[in-house]
Specification:
By secondary structure, this protein is of the alpha/beta class. The chain folds into two domains: 148 residues, Aspartate Aminotransferase, domain 1 (Alpha-Beta Complex), CATH 3.90.1150; 221 residues, 3-Layer(aba) Sandwich (Aspartate Aminotransferase, domain 2), CATH 3.40.640. It has 14 helices and eleven strands. A seven-stranded mixed beta sheet has the order 2-8-7-6-5-3-4, sandwiched between helices. Strands 1-10 form a two-stranded parallel sheet. A two-stranded antiparallel sheet has the order 9-11. Helix 1 packs across helix 3.
Length: 380
């Protein structure tokens, strides 16, 4: 049966069949797969999904319209769409297109950076815990992984990471950090970069800004400026979070021309699909939609943090679409008990074995979830 543009947009909307398609577009679950294998199919209505840091609202109206139109061209290779997206990302960031490399989600860009700068004699420096994909990629190319534990306040230990970076090939700096939800300001990141490069001038710093759009901390600033000034710095971004397109797999890197060329050699050939490129292109300039999603996330995040505080727990300050909270008990057991009552939360993040990561869903989802948290936390 043919699928018209109008019908496609209707299906992506709220309610009815859209309830089945929207989670697919938003790809609710990439990170959870890291916990071990593929998850069994479930009825989306049966589980509150707060486990993978996705945007529960999916793409904005402009992106959905673009997706519907793009269906008419899926028999063509996506070169033109990818070129248009690259140019749009460049314009939005005030750079030339040669300073941008798009990839199959930012995970593709992260992997490419590891392949470009790590190897048997060039270690990866990362945090513990942080997003694990770069560490797994480093191990595949025979690189040592130097994982530096986060501080007691759950912030990255930049001083210890700088010490660990001596002689390394790549430093992975997730800012804001997943899963701790903490952020470092402009001055701290700039000083960190200067210290690392003073000790090891040929080391590269990869700054993952997947959660950039959610940050409210006034001391924060993107590292894109640093990346454009210094070929040893590169920034990764994604359309998976605030733009709600995790299932479409679109991300990008920004840096100097030599750095982008080095990374692009390792990205997937034609890794960005046409519909994904079209939706991302429509989202680049959708400032009102981003502002709306930020506001929705902020309200639901504040509600969730207040619940934990009122319950006697101390969640970390969050600059993301998730919170990290020390529940003072085995986090895996808490996770299992919540799932048994219909709420999925993040996987275990060693060495923080008593901390739970809770993605921020819709306000309705957070109200349902906190009721479950209250029951589980009240159980001895």
């Amino acid at each position: 049966m043919s699928l018209s543009r109008r019908r496609f947009v209707h299906l992506l909307g709220a309610g009815g069949t859209g309830a089945m398609l929207a989670p697919a577009v938003a790809a609710r679950g990439l990170e959870a797969a890291l916990a071990g294998g593929r998850r069994a199919p479930i009825d989306p209505a049966a589980l509150v999904r707060l486990d993978s840091n996705e945007n529960p609202n999916g793409p904005g109206p402009a992106a959905r319209d673009a997706l519907a139109v793009a269906l008419g061209g899926v028999h063509r290779y996506p070169d033109d769409a990818v070129d248009a997206l690259t140019a749009a990302v460049a314009r939005a960031n005030g750079v030339d297109a040669a300073h941008v490399c798009v990839g199959c989600g930012s995970t593709d860009v992260l992997r490419a950076a590891v392949y470009a700068y790590c190897g048997p004699t060039r270690a990866l420096v990362t945090a513990a815990p942080t997003y694990e994909a770069p560490s797994a990629d480093a191990e595949r190319v025979g690189a040592a992984v130097r994982a530096v534990p986060v501080r007691g306040d759950l912030r990255l230990d930049l001083a210890a990471m700088a010490d660990a970076a001596r002689g390394a090939g790549l430093v992975y700096l997730c800012n804001p950090n997943n899963p701790t939800a903490t952020v470092h300001g402009r001055a701290a990141v700039s000083d960190f970069v200067a210290r690392v490069l003073r000790d090891t001038p040929d080391c590269t710093i990869l700054v993952d800004e997947a959660y950039h759009d959610y940050v409210d901390d006034p001391s924060y600033a993107s590292a894109i400026g640093l990346a454009l000034e210094n070929p040893r710095v590169v920034v990764a971004r994604t359309f998976s979070k605030v733009h709600g397109m995790a299932g479409l797999r679109v991300g990008y890197a920004i840096g100097t021309r030599p750095t982008i060329e080095a990374i692009a050699r390792h990205t997937l050939s034609l890794g960005v699909n046409g519909p994904g490129a079209a939706a991302a292109l429509a989202s680049v300039g959708a400032a009102d939609h981003v502002a709306h999603e930020r506001a929705l996330n902020r309200d639901a995040r504040d509600f969730t943090r207040r619940f934990f505080v009122d319950a006697g727990y101390a969640p970390s300050a969050s600059e993301t679409n998730f919170v990290m909270v020390d529940i003072r008990r085995d986090a895996q057991a808490f996770r299992d008990a919540c799932r048994a009552q219909g709420v999925a939360i993040g996987r275990l993040f060693p060495p923080l074995r008593t901390h739970a990561r809770v993605t921020i869903g819709t306000m309705d989802e957070m109200q349902r979830a906190t009721a479950v948290f209250r029951r589980v936390l009240g159980t001895a």
